[in-house]
From TrEMBL:
This protein's UniProt keywords: Electron transport, Membrane, Mitochondrion, Mitochondrion inner membrane, Respiratory chain, Transport
Gene Ontology CC: mitochondrial inner membrane; respiratory chain complex I
Phylogenetic lineage: Eukaryota, Metazoa, Ecdysozoa, Arthropoda, Hexapoda
Principal subcellular localization: mitochondrion
Annotated family: Belongs to the complex I NDUFB10 subunit family.
Record membrane topology: Peripheral membrane protein
The protein's name: NADH dehydrogenase [ubiquinone] 1 beta subcomplex subunit 10
InterPro entries cross-referenced by the UniProt entry: NADH_UbQ_OxRdtase_su10 (IPR019377), NDUFB10 (IPR039993)
Length: 161
């Protein structure tokens, strides 16, 4: 749709001044900024996946550093997902005030499952943990489950005696 013609000289003057101020800004953005801008199809930068800590050699310090950095990013993403689920549940409770027990149950179950999974992976590691301590926790949990059954179900009895 073409612009309407200015009705009088004052409107024409302000349109001209506006164009003079706007034209260099638009030119810089279209010709310099946008062609040099990295565009990601995501809301955040997507890093390439690096080998995990169990794939690193024991003397490969760079691989340990990359695995630890990736672990920290993954933990931050998982924590943000948990925060979003918690906010959704709290918003549901506030919005569905008297009937929130039945209407927000699916959100609560999803949040509780995500919390359990987060705690299974990152819980009880202490303040200063890294990818190696998390990997050791996972290894010890798998050994426990192999010997005693799933965690939380009690110790399995030996029927072979």
């Amino acid at each position: 749709m073409p612009e309407a013609e200015p009705r009088n000289i004052v409107e024409k003057f302000f349109n001209t001044v506006g164009y003079i101020l706007q034209a260099p800004t638009v030119w810089v953005r279209e010709k310099i900024v946008e062609p040099n801008q990295k565009s990601y199809p995501w809301y955040h930068q997507k890093f390439r996946r690096v080998p995990t800590i169990d794939e690193c050699y024991t003397d490969d310090v760079v691989c340990y550093y990359e695995a630890d950095t990736q672990y920290r990013r993954d933990k931050q993403v998982d924590s943000e997902i948990l925060s979003i689920l918690r906010d959704r549940f709290e918003d549901c409770v506030m919005y569905e005030a008297p009937d929130h027990l039945e209407r927000c149950t699916p959100l609560h179950k999803q949040y509780e499952e995500a919390t359990t999974n987060w705690f299974t992976k990152y819980g009880d590691l202490g303040a200063y943990h890294n990818a190696k301590t998390c990997y050791m926790k996972q290894k010890h949990r798998l050994l426990w489950e192999r010997r005693h059954g799933p965690v939380g179900t009690g110790m399995k009895s030996d029927l072979s005696e």
